[in-house]
Specification:
Length: 167
């Protein structure tokens, strides 16, 4: 009888411990934020605003490739002066491309940083709402977790909540 009582107590204790296991969620904050409709709108607006620069960059890249191909193809029939002119033209196009690329990258980084600052509070509220709705006890940043089963991933839930809150 004593053994039965001890086993019943152990079984009850283990089931209580199991019932109290924490509910864990994992979130990729960057993915949640930049997967939102607001981030997609930001990207579309930025691409629209800097579309001319992107087209210019593509055009310069095409022209540079053509110069390189021509120099390689016609190297044996071009004079030294023509080769110098082509090299000079290629260097000029590379310099222009670098200036445009740096300007685009700087603008994009500024926009992203401003977006993150603007959305920080909304992201926190979305996380809180998902935690409350899902009954999560612990939510960890995906960057700080070495491995996790995708079943714990709440990133898409947070993104959906961000989109819902923006409506």
């Amino acid at each position: 009888m004593n053994k039965l009582l001890i086993m019943a107590t152990m079984l009850l204790t283990s089931s209580v411990a199991f019932a109290q296991a924490p509910t864990i969620g994992i979130i990729d904050l960057e993915q949640a934020l930049f997967g939102s409709e607001a981030a997609q709108e930001l990207e579309a607006n930025t691409r629209s605003e800097f579309g001319a620069d992107e087209q210019r960059l593509e055009r310069l890249n095409t022209e540079l490739r053509e110069i390189i191909e021509r120099a390689q193809r016609d190297e044996s029939i071009l004079s030294e002066a023509e080769m110098r002119d082509m090299n000079s033209d290629a260097e000029e196009k590379q310099a222009q491309m670098q200036v445009i690329a740096e300007r685009l990258q700087g603008a994009w980084q500024q926009r992203q940083q401003a977006f993150v600052e603007r959305m920080r509070q909304s992201l926190g509220q979305a996380i809180e709402a998902v935690v409350e709705e899902g009954g999560y006890d612990v939510v960890l940043n995906a960057e700080s977790v070495a491995y996790f089963d995708n079943a714990y991933n709440i990133t898409t839930l947070v993104t959906a909540k961000l989109n819902e809150m923006a409506q």
